[in-house]
Amino acid sequence: MSDTTPPQASSSPVTYSSAGVDTEAGDKAVELMKEAVRATHGTLVVGGVGGFAGMVDVSALKDYRRPLLATSTDGVGTKVAIAQALDIHHTIGQDLVGMVVDDIVVVGAKPLLMTDYIATGKVVPERIADIVRGIAEACAAIGVPLLGGETAEHPGLLEAGEYDVAGAATGVVEADAVLGADRVREGDVAIAMASSGLHSNGYSLVRRVLEVAGLGLDAHVAELGRTVGEELLEPTRLYTTVCLDLIAELDVHAFTHVTGGGLAANLARVLPAGLVATVDRGSWTVPPVFDLVRRLGAVPWHDVENTLNLGVGMVALVPADQADAAMATVRACGMDSWVLGAVRADTGELAADADRDLVRGTKGVHAGAVELTGRYRI
């Protein structure tokens, strides 16, 4: 048996700081962000910033007949790489809130709280504070308390300038008020709510296209009216307020949040089997950034529409006689709105052809179908 050389003690002390974790920087980051976080706290938040757990008073739930808690968690994907490349970090927080909270609203739930998580290779207090301020400001804009969060320093796992963000939210909805496929009926109309741009999906495709085309983030593009970087960092539009307004005012049957997978795949998720929604591709003009990505990368239209939102961020399904009222409510909230198409019975005879595509069975859900007709206006 060979001898084992005993380990040798370090010639100098190993500290948490020398291992790459700076707890003082973390404390400074909290100091810089806490006022923005506190500004999201209304009268229902119990306790202050910095506790082990955030608490919110849900006494009002006793007035519900059968309250259901709705929850969602998400991140912003590789859009963070754009923020890091440009060293601009105060907008990415709104993307996070939009991706998380607006998924909850889709089922008709009113958001109660949100939490966040940031992992980084090195805590730079000002950068972390910028990220959290963005999250807090977006939460404040839609009346949702940012109840807690965590910043984790992971030296050796992430580079000093790298970070990722994630968030989770919880909301409540009355059991008999849950929106979704079981409410959708033949004759319903699909009402589009315009996106603010790329939102937070498809950035792996977009970044690859820019790489292949050799187009830098600082390049000014006339059709965009700004630089590529400014366009790509445009924050995700928040739909929480307008969706809650629509629920309060109208007989909304379903919403769909157009995120990963594009319009058709996400719309099919909220249709019952046996119904098909026809979407007229020519009912709106596709914003320039989407066609720019398509042209620069010679990306097939099929790939584009299955990856990017193409200008539609949220869709409401309402009875036909309430379509005009729904569009008026959306426009009153400062965003464009139009009729995408309508819902009809699916006879099972539909088939794709040169000007029509059919999407069924997306996201693992046994649901309805979406028929995309015509051609996009660009």
- Write the CATH architecture name of the largest domain: Alpha-Beta Complex
Number of domains: 2
Helical residues, percent: 25-40%
Order of helices and strands: HEEEHHEHEEEHEEHHEHEHHEHEEE
**What is the terminal-to-terminal distance?**
76 Å
| Biggest beta-sheet profile | 7 strands, mixed
Number of strands: 15
Strand content: 15-25%
Question: What is the global morphology?
Answer: globular
Radius of gyration: 23 Å
Report the structural category.
Answer: alpha+beta
Question: So what's the CATH class of the largest domain?
Answer: Alpha Beta
User: How are strands sequenced across the largest beta sheet?
Assistant: 10-12-7-13-11-15-14
Unreliable runs: none
In CATH terms, the superfamily of the largest domain is: PurM-like C-terminal domain
The averaged pLDDT comes out at: 91
The CATH topology annotation of the largest domain reads as Phosphoribosyl-aminoimidazole Synthetase, Chain A, domain 2
Q: How many helices does DSSP assign? A: 11
What does this entry show, briefly?
This protein folds into two domains: 21-58 and 65-174, PurM-like, N-terminal domain (60s Ribosomal Protein L30, Chain: A); 181-373, Phosphoribosyl-aminoimidazole Synthetase, Chain A, domain 2. With 378 residues, the chain is an alpha+beta fold.
